[in-house]
Design goal:
Number of helices: 4
Helix content: 55-70%
Shape: globular
Length: 87
């Protein structure tokens, strides 16, 4: 399995927001949105996590995904992936 890390936080954020929008059929999803408020649930979170795992070799923190905005979830993931705080 080839694992890639996006070049920056904005690239990762765009990709994750696009995936959330695709899975939730919410093309207007934004980093400020909450996954659950958009209609997300645990099964969809697992499906998104499979895609993240396949692409990046890391998983989303589902608790953060449920409790925070998509943008905050991406920041947490980026921090773990790069080993350093997001700028």
């Amino acid at each position: 399995m080839t694992v890639s890390v996006p070049g920056d936080l904005q690239e990762l954020q765009k990709l994750l927001v696009d995936w959330v929008g695709e899975f939730l059929e919410a093309p207007d999803a934004s980093p400020a949105d909450n996954f659950l408020d958009l209609g997300g649930h645990s099964l969809l979170a697992m499906n998104i996590n499979v895609r993240v795992q396949q692409k990046f070799g890391h998983e989303l923190d589902v608790r953060t995904l449920f409790e925070q905005s998509i943008g905050e979830t991406v920041t947490e993931l980026h921090t773990r992936m790069t080993g350093q705080p997001a700028a």
